[in-house]
Design goal:
Blueprint (H helix, E strand, L loop, with lengths): L1 H8 L4 H9 L4 H5 L1 E4 L2 E4 L9 H17 L5 E5 L5 H10 L2 E6 L2 H13 L5 E4 L10 E6 L4 E2 L6 H4 L8 E2 H4 L1 H9 L4 E10 L5 H11 L4 E6 L5 E7 L2
Parallel strand pairs: 3-4, 3-6, 4-5, 6-9, 7-8
Antiparallel strand pairs: 1-2, 9-11, 10-11
Amino acid sequence: MEEEYLRKYYKGDINDALKKLEEGIPVQYIVGDVNFYGYDFKVNNSVLIPRFETEELVRKTIEYINNLFDYNVTMLDIGTGSGCIAITLSKQTGAIVDAVDISKDALEVAKENNLLNNSDVNFFLSDIFSNVDKTYDVIISNPPYIAKDEEIMEVVKNNEPHIALYADDEGLSFYERILSEIRSHLNLKYLIAFEIGETQGEKVKEIALRYLKTSSVIIEKDLTGVDRYVFIVSN
């Protein structure tokens, strides 16, 4: 199936591409782009390959926004990578979107995707909130959440950026960091949306309620039926 995909979409030397595939390089990196929520995004090994689970995060976030807000929201995407979340939500909701990443190489990819999709996301370098000085209606993140001793697929471990995959404290450290600093970056009415590991829902909920005691925290499942998202809503 991957070979068929290469033959259909790869524009260079197909024999060279097939050799890379045999070496274990993901087909998305060989082709150089991927479709996400109906939009095309450039990808390379500086960014994670966008996944179906993250498309569902975007879809659910759009539903929450439509139900909670009757105006164009302001939004921050933390750890934007390729920019797929920020750009898609900008185009689908009309939100005013800022997006940050700690990786300069990832931001270069995101900015290229911003141009490619004719979107108007403001991308800038920041270690979570270190360079953020605004408040937002919506803050969304698909942060690194894989525990450092967790076994993952070899093709992922050997190719995708570890800075975007692994986190300390059993994969929970970025949720702790984000939520411990988030209050000063939220408007009075807010939505926070996270993608999580399938065993992390209750732990992320516990962290959220530690810092945002009066909020509602909802754990939602992905299309395979496992816990994959946490949504935090102001009361």
